Amino acid sequence: MASMRITRPLPLPLPQPNRNSTVVVRELGGCLRSAFLAFFYFALAHQTHAQVPKLSIVSAGNESFILSWPATAAGYVLESAQKLDAFTAWRAVANSSTLANAEFRLVITIKDSAQFFRLGLAPALLAAEDFAIGDYTLISSTSISPSVSEDTYKAYVSNWSDADATVTASLGSTAAHITVLEGRSSFGEVAVGASVESSDTFTVRHDHSKPFDDAALIWAIQATSLPPTTFELIDKALNDGFIDAETALVYRVFDEFNDVRLPAQYRGRDDGFFEATAIREARQLFKTLSPATQQLLTPLLHIPDMVEIAQRTPQSAMGASTPSVIK
After folding, report:
1. Right CATH number for 126-225 from 2.60.40, 3.10.450, 4.10.860, 2.120.10?
2. 316 in helix, strand or coil?
3. For the purposes of burial, counting CB atoms within 10 Å of the CB of 146, is it exposed (0-12), middle (13-18) or buried (19 or more)?
């Protein structure tokens, strides 16, 4: 018989201005042992101090549970993760919820391992006019009749907005001689200023008695902003006055070395680029940094004049904790 209990917040190293309800569901050894509701405190750079909607859970039997949250929770989406630590990756739950009695409900089944659920702020939708789809590449063509063919293409999308985004699009046609047979295209993550080819294809039926007109293809584009990168979170904290420029530089170096001393609240999305810009900047500014920061960065930057000093420094003085300059 499944048991449920309310627990105190777990001692995770997370900041605490905002409360976010996180449901933890666990099954061990093929037999459901426990399910419990826990509340954690999360602080995201873009969140305010507004009350986060409550996420609730009840057992439905047979290893199933019902998650529910208020229908008034506009702007929030249900997210899940496999574990909770400094590197937790929260993903939107793909399953569709149902609306009943002024609340959203979703039935989940847990079989093998713990799962964590929370309500997170929904990503912002970006203006469709800041994205352009074109540069069609013909993949295949099938003749249906002497004058009609079914043509399959791939397309490129260009991101002219000011934010990295996940882009999908649906195709329509304004021309009677062009019929869209399959028009859903996904482009994945598209960085600012980049052009990315679709991961799938679209297919149209074309009556060749009239010329093919690209302008007749109308795309309904949905672009969702991606979570901020680590550098963006650090820059925001610097601009907001929460950390100083030297601390921001140290945090950027930590990020480029994937150093565990980078505070969890600054661990953002990995954009896949590594240019060592912080490492180069730290080397250039090294002599202007405080002695504590010089000592902190020397093992990472391999500054020759400081290596011997760093090697003589007791490990307890250079462990996971950071000097007073790090806020």
Report:
1. 2.60.40
2. helix
3. exposed
